[in-house]
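One example given next:
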Amino acid sequence: MKKMSSALAVLIAVTLMSSTPIWAKDKDSVELPNRVKEAYEEVLELVPEIQKYENREVEVYDGIYTITLEKKKREYPSATIEINEKTGDIVYFEHISNLEESSNPPSDELAKEKATEFLKELLDDKFDQYKFDSIKEDAIHIRNDNEDGSKIDAERDVKRVLFTTENKNVLNIGVVVDTEGTIHSVLPFLTEEKLDQKIRKSVERVFEAIPELKEGPYRVMRKDRNYENWSKIPEHSIMREQIFFSSDNANIVIDNITGELNHLTIDGMDGKSNNPIGKEVAKVKAAQFIQQVIEDSEKYKFVALGTPYSEANDSGTAVGFTTPLPEDERYVKHLKVYVAQNGKILWVKARVEEKSVDFEQHYKDLEQKK
């Protein structure tokens, strides 16, 4: 499977997705709508090389067509194109073509020239609302475990060219330019300063509670699922609009409507201890964490706790809290906080559940071998 991370500075890419894709491997089995087809063919014309990638997969989410082209199944080189069905706009484009290590990025002049040329062709008259903003040094890290057992692990120095617009209804655009002026990716973005104040405050609270997370850099993406067939389902209510902050060792998800923390995972932080804390201490630490990161934390009430089963006996304690769901009194938001043996918070997960759920039994079940 492909594993890729790009060491981008703070960006916010906006995508519109649902949870259940319809997808097809057969290149001829999905009929692309006219606007999607036109945009897709335009990209093929702009980047002739990807026309040679015969393995095509199409994923259809509500409003977004994601087309993946690969020269060989599950291996690079490959290209990904995301297109808005209603508008025909390119939501995201990425072309991973050069798999070699490189510390030779394009010059600023070449990067600006190639990025401008590409966007002019891609956007046509829509390009007129953009103006060149700046060029940043960047790096892309490409990893892949090929099906034949070979591995790809390469870092390439690149330039990121930013174009901004004063149109509040249109996102800015970032273009990543690889060596010799090859276009690596195009994605809409917002600067961090334009984030809603409640989101910025929520992330700052997380950083204050866990200072190790401040380092970054963070890539920031917004997922908007605020369409009718999604938002009417209570269990989906906390996922209608979310802001995702991702770094090499952490993922933070904030509810864009309420500003509350919905999810947190930390990789690479050691949680083991020769003198592990007890469950009651873990309960206190979890409660203190919620007080630190959620402004009106008093609404969350403790429901139960448990130590997830582990043959290595290295598990910490999962501590559960709930609060009534304002939209539907039959449901609660269930916040599960995992406290490691050494007292550190390693992850937080939020779900909407029926208030009739037996949470004590749920946490007891965690302790059982499966």
Q: What stands out?
A: The CA atoms of residues 43 and 244 lie 28 Å apart. The first strand starts at residue 2 and ends at 7. The chain is about 20% helix and 40% strand. The chain has a mean pLDDT of 84.
